[in-house]
Write a structure and sequence with these properties.
With 105 residues, this protein is an alpha+beta fold. The chain has one domain (8-103): Beta Polymerase, domain 2, CATH 3.30.460. It has helices at 7-20, 53-63, 77-84, 90-97, and strands spanning 24-32, 38-47, 70-76, 99-103. It has a four-stranded mixed beta sheet, with helices on both faces.
C-alpha cells in the first residue's frame, strides 16, 4: 500500500500518539470511494510491554473521534517483534506491506 496519508488518517495518528504514546503505528488498510475519499481504514498500534493491548484498544475506541469507520489492532512490542519475524503472521504482512506512519524516537 502506498500513497499520501489522508488528513483523516493523519489526525487519527496524532490522537493515538497523545492517548497512548505508541512505539509504532502502521496503516494496515484503507478503503476509498470513487472520488478517492477515505471511507474507512485500519491501523495497527504497537505499544510498550508494560501496557495491555486490550486496554489500549478499548481506550482508542472510546476516546478517539473519526468521521469515518476506523478499526485498531494493538500489539505489545515483544509480541510484535516475535510475530513480525514469522512470515505466516499478520504482523509480518503488516510490517512488510503496510505503511509505517509513526515510529517513536
Amino acid at each position: 500500500m502506498s500513497g499520501p496519508v489522508n488528513d483523516i488518517i493523519g489526525e487519527m495518528v496524532q490522537q493515538i500518539i497523545k492517548l497512548c504514546d505508541p512505539c509504532m503505528i502502521y496503516l494496515v488498510s484503507r478503503k476509498t470511494n470513487t472520488a478517492g475519499k477515505v471511507t474507512s481504514f485500519k491501523l495497527c498500534v504497537v505499544v510498550e510491554d508494560s501496557i495491555l493491548p486490550e486496554q489500549v484498544e478499548t481506550k482508542l475506541l472510546l476516546k478517539t473521534d473519526c468521521p469515518v469507520p476506523c478499526d485498531f489492532i494493538v500489539y505489545n512490542i515483544s509480541d510484535w517483534d516475535e510475530c513480525a519475524e514469522d512470515d505466516c503472521s499478520f504482523a509480518y504482512r503488516v510490517e512488510n506491506g503496510g505503511d509505517r506512519l509513526y515510529v517513536k524516537e
